[in-house]
Amino acid sequence: MTEPINPTTKSTLKSILNYQWIVMNISFFLFLALIAILYIANGHLTDKTIRKINTTQHELKELQFEYKTLKSELMRRSRAVEIQDKVAPYGLVVAKEMPIRLVKENRIQNQSQNNSQNK
Prior knowledge:
Blueprint: H1 7-16, H2 19-24, H3 26-77, H4 80-87, H5 107-118
């Protein structure tokens, strides 16, 4: 035996979801659809931004490693011993004695002093 379906539930549901009610509330349904589309778009935009941030962080780490490597290489190459070894084939060596300071005469001042004395 089958149980009879309660006719009052069907008629109540039918009366709520009739054509006129749907037409009257179409603007509300469109509003809900627009909000759902915006929600989905916001989720995609957030995912895209997070991926971009992660990519940028990865590139930044790689550049930091490269910077540290190049800096240590430069410090190693700029040591005095390394420089001496590199320039030795060109005949450049470190001087054993202190450099001599040369005094440059200022000829213009000397000439003007001589001219004023001659007058």
